[in-house]
Q: What sequence folds into this?
């Protein structure tokens, strides 16, 4: 790729998710991050100060900046996934604040599914607990490439370095067993603001970055040419006007990789091949386009291409299949059982499918496999075997988070039932039979 292409493809956006056990101070950490980075509007801060005074608090309760639901404020917990958007001069951020309760594991899966970094909170007084291991396992399962261990409430342990070191070592060993590629441990006090945005004056023994410094500098931009191109077709464009009588283009968003004019491609699942003759981006013809650009692709041959088809390089196209084995997180309240008929949505394609088997359920506390559970209940993570009515061009989730993921949908009412990750290769002990 040329230097201009790489520069144009570079993004300063970081998507990250937060997770922590109940009362670890996660909402306070997020509130402190937003407040100290000047990402809170004056009227928002005034509303928080008013709510804090009405509850008898002497200082603003920054947790109220994120706990927006009434039930969350009343109980002092996080229930729903709250998305926050903020920016600093160095980077833009999309923050998914996820719940810490066991019964909301599905919410964390939702928030972390597109994250490039996960912030896992630990109470310095309690250390690594079962829910900490659960959150680390979910991050590993979803292939989140960077994890920050935020050891919070250091002020309540007198900012003791040995306490932090012991927790960081224990979590590091566990993360290593999951094959988490990058872990950064940071001692913080969200309530006092230590090492969140500003360096702490109480922990001169710590020489690493603050949470915000790490978020601003962690490398997240990958060279799109390192992955095979995947272009799910969203819409076929045929204006048939006097100006464009023969125009036939296929619009969509490039899920991964790079597409080039002159490249030989395969249209899946039909398997027909053609050559890219033109790429239109923002109304202009370009020679090359890359993920995640939205473009219109034109081919040399008049093939039958419609929504749900996948255009990929002929030399690196996935093999279509009707037999899908995957690790899934069940998000619906009603169980998923063998024999259930569902809709499977993969990129822009939706096909009928049947659940052939549920071979195992994963216990995230100790990563053990429970064979033949009979069903998956809400928040369960397990293995499923599916048979689809039509072929799908699935990648392994380990190779592509975009084209290796799918949803199972209730055909009766359109409810999302399950989030799936195709393939059997997962880090460490996760997903092992």
A:
């Amino acid at each position: 790729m040329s230097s201009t292409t790489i520069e144009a493809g570079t993004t300063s956006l970081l998507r990250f998710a937060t997770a922590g056990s109940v009362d670890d101070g996660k909402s306070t950490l997020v509130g402190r991050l937003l407040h100290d980075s000047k990402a809170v509007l004056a009227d928002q801060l005034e509303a928080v100060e008013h709510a804090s005074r009405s509850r008898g608090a002497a200082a603003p309760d920054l947790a109220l900046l994120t706990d927006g639901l009434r039930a969350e404020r009343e109980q002092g917990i996080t229930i729903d996934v709250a998305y926050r958007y903020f920016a600093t001069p160095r980077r833009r951020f999309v923050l998914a604040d996820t719940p810490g309760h066991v019964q909301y594991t599905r919410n964390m899966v939702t928030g972390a599914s597109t994250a490039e970094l996960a912030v896992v909170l630990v109470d310095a007084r309690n250390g690594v607990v079962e829910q900490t291991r659960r959150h680390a396992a979910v991050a590993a399962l979803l292939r989140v490439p960077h994890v920050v261990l935020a050891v919070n409430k250091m002020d309540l342990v007198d900012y003791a370095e040995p306490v932090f070191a012991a927790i960081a070592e224990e979590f590091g060993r566990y993360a290593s067993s999951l094959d988490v590629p990058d872990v950064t441990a940071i001692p913080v006090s969200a309530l006092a603001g230590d090492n969140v945005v500003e360096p702490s004056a109480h922990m001169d023994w710590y020489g690493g970055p603050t949470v915000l410094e790490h978020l601003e500098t962690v490398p997240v931009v990958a060279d799109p040419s390192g992955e095979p191109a995947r272009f799910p077709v969203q819409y076929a464009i045929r204006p048939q006007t006097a100006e464009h009588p023969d125009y036939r283009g296929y619009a969509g968003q490039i899920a991964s990789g790079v597409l080039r004019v002159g490249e030989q491609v395969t249209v899946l699942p039909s398997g027909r091949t053609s050559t890219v003759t033109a790429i239109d981006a923002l109304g202009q013809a370009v020679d090359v386009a890359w993920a995640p650009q939205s473009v219109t692709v034109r081919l040399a041959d008049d093939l039958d291409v419609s929504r749900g088809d996948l255009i990929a390089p002929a030399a690196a196209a996935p093999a279509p299949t009707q037999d899908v084995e995957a690790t899934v997180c069940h998000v619906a309240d009603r169980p998923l059982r063998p024999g259930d008929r569902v809709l499977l949505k993969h990129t822009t394609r939706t096909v009928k499918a049947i659940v052939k088997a549920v071979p195992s359920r994963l216990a995230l506390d100790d990563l053990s496999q429970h064979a033949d559970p009979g069903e998956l209940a809400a928040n369960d993570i397990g293995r499923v075997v599916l048979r689809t009515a039509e072929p799908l061009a699935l990648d392994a989730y380990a190779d592509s988070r975009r084209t290796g993921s799918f949803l199972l949908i209730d055909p009766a009412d359109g409810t999302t039932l399950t989030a799936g990750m195709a393939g059997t290769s997962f880090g460490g002990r996760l997903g092992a039979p």
